[in-house]
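Model it.
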Amino acid sequence: MPELPEVETTCRGIAPHIQGHRVSGAIVRDARLRWPVPDLATRLTGHIVRHVERRAKYLLLRFDHGTLIIHLGMSGSLRILPAATPPRRHDHVDLLFGARCLRLHDPRRFGAVLWTADDPMRHPRLAELGPEPLSEGFDGGYLHRCAARRRAPIKSLIMDGHTVVGVGNIYASEALFLAGIHPARASQRISAARLDRLAAAVKQVLAHAIERGGTTLRDFLNESGEPGYFAQELFVYGRAGEPCKVCGTPIATRQIGQRASAYCPHCQH
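Modeled.
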């Protein structure tokens, strides 16, 4: 699933090619995404994309008369392509910008393309989200207040979008390793000092992943894209049974909140 660094990388990748440009048309080949895709041609043709931004894992394409909200779901991706490029299977939506298009590819169709004429931050999908992890509003003090009296595993807490947005399985696992905290430890049993370290680790791992292009794709100007580089630097995620890069102990996994959680039994407690 695309996580926050991948969505931020997507935002930065597509913005120079569509921001300030006028939509010349739209093609919806399959409107059956997580929610039905609206009539984009009627709403957007002739209008200019004023700004492209990210909120949590949502991309916001702002127009003078409203905002297009895009979520990449489990398997979605966006590419800038020549408009005449033949669509592949699962290429569901094109926004046309003259000779180029912004194309949504989503094999599992768990993504979303939504429209709102109101403030997008009040949209039901965004209104109750927690702070951005790289913002000043997310720090150890905030995390300590959220953890107080919470018996939930700390990994579940930091993956809860009401607590903080965009910290998915990959980056939660990596941040907990950097902070030396076992992913199953009850949130209320973690000291303020350790939560300070965890908040700093979340910021560190996300910022580094964004810098390195995320763990998936970083080229938005061709059909296939190219792999990012951060995946080569993971400490625990996807490394079950391999030796810890710090102490050599085999990386273990357990189910936490219905997700496989990788951790080092020696380094994390």
